[in-house]
Amino acid sequence: MPIDDESRLPVSSSTPPEIPQEQQELFRDVLTHMKDRGIPFVVSGAFALQQHTGICRFTKDLDLFLPAEYVQVALQSLQEEGFECQVADPVWLAKAHRGEYFVDLITGMSNAVVVVDQSWIDRGVEAEIFGVQVKVLGPEELIASKLFVTRRERFDGADIAHIFYGTHGKLDWPRLQALIGEHWEMLLWALLFFHYIYPAHSHYVPQEVWQGLLARLHNTLDLPDPQAQFRGALIDPKMFAIDVNEWGLPDLLEEYRRRRQPKISDDCVKPAA
Fold it and tell me: If pLDDT is split at 50, 70 and 90, which confidence band does 269 have?
């Protein structure tokens, strides 16, 4: 990476960033508006990371997680408040912006493996953001939302390791494993990454979790499934494009995205003036 690009990367710190007053007011307006309209949501992104790790990070966007069926009313409501709205990807992402600041309405991960439902809202942690009482994403859901952020240009592995460390592993482990489901290898990989970084703190992960995941790994190694599908595209569709486009391996990413229901509707979105 060129030095000029590297210099723009964030450096982890507990020092609160200086957030412009205009941005604070916009975020406060959005949070208050969503609450007043009764739209269920939970705050993620930099604010959730700070809640669970103490790490402060500057952000120009406000990440709100909500089930897909509520996005249309949220977009319509934000348009009434003067935001320009768009459905960036019907599988997982809509955006609302006013000036240089924007709000991301997120219903899951781009590969459609992880999907937000009402339980994410119900399990949110009470917090105050710019004077507004809201819920931020619980640590289990925050980890699940970051497990597949593993692309060449963005990697959230350090965030996940910090969540394990910052919570001292006091997590609802059955909930976390249920969120990951059949993609349990990704959780095991994240835990091994954590163990490498914090070798004196592997006890933050319960022994039964280590043993259960490692036993599953041994089973797959002892009895490999010759029909198991290639999953590289779920990790990074660009870096694994050659596997699909030239080597003829199936595109599991497109299958997951096609199956994802409900998708975000853009029926209410007005075209930009």
Answer: confident
In a domain, 67, yes or no: yes
Cα–Cα distance between 99 and 184 in angstroms, integer?
41
pTM over 0.85: yes
Question: Any idea what the CATH number is for the domain that residue 64 is in?
Answer: 3.30.460.40
- For residues 165 and 208, the answer to whether their CB atoms sit within 8 Å is no
Is 231 part of any domain?
no
Residue 272 phi/psi, 5° resolution? Answer: -60, 145
How big is the CA angle at 119 (ends 115 and 125), to the nearest 5 degrees? 110
Question: Cα–Cα distance between 164 and 158 in angstroms, integer?
Answer: 10
How far is residue 272's CA from residue 265's CA, in Å, rounded to a whole number?
17
Whether the Cβ atoms of residue 103 and residue 127 lie closer than 8 Å to each other: no
Task: Give SS3 for 82.
Answer: coil
Q: Which domain holds residue 104?
A: 3-224
Q: How far, CA to CA in Å, does 84 sit from each of 77, 99, 100?
A: 11, 9, 11
Give the model confidence (pLDDT) of 47-106 as tens digits. 999 999 999 998 889 999 999 999 999 999 999 989 999 999 999 999 999 888 899 999
Is 272's pLDDT higher than 90?
no
Tell me if 167 is assigned to some domain: yes
Number of separate domains in the chain: 1
Task: Report yes or no on 254 lying in a domain.
Answer: no
Q: Classify residue 152 by its DSSP letter.
A: T
- Per-residue pLDDT averaged across 151-158, rounded? 94
